[in-house]
Amino acid sequence: VQLQASGGGSVQTGESLTLSCVCSRPSFSSFSLAWFRQAPGQEREFVGGINWSGRSTIYADAAKGRFTISRDNAKNSVYLQMSNLTPQDTAVYYCAANLHGIQIKSEIEEYTYWGPGTLVTVSS
């Protein structure tokens, strides 16, 4: 299983950005998926996740109200829409897949497959 995230870049405070992640595996629709991020000098942290059907999502407190996760199983893709970005959102963002698609997990160790990450830089 290969995951490839894209869409990172440099934005100003208050702007929006959407990240995409494409999965190479046809059984993508059975996975739960998550976005994590790692800021410089910080540990990797959970941003949000989505179950296999897309009907259920959970978010970290820092993402609630500003970030939205969605998926398109027909395109083997998951998305992270980010709005009202601040410099504190600067990080490398990773998408990750959990083979058990029903329950969304927030722990790093629950995710088997990871993409290489895409850098988001927010300047003030």
Task: Tell me what you see in this structure.
The chain has strands at 3-6, 9-12, 17-23, 32-38, 45-50, 57-59, 67-72, 77-82, 91-98, 113-114, 118-123. The strands form 2 sheets. Strands 2, 4, 5, 6, 9, 10 and 11 form a 7-stranded mixed β-sheet that branches. The protein has 124 residues and is mainly β. Helix content is 0%, strand content 48%.
- Count the DSSP helices: 0
Oligomer: single chain
Structural class: mainly beta
Level of helix content? Answer: under 10%
Please tell me the overall pLDDT: 95
Q: Outline the biggest β-sheet.
A: 7 strands, mixed
Which descriptor suits the 3D outline? globular
Rg from alpha-carbon coordinates:
13 Å
Strand content: over 45%
DSSP E strands, number: 11
Distance between the termini: 37 Å
Structure summarized in a few sentences:
With 124 residues, this protein is mainly β. Helices cover 0% and strands 48% of the residues. The strands form 2 sheets. Strands 2, 4, 5, 6, 9, 10 and 11 form a 7-stranded mixed sheet that branches.
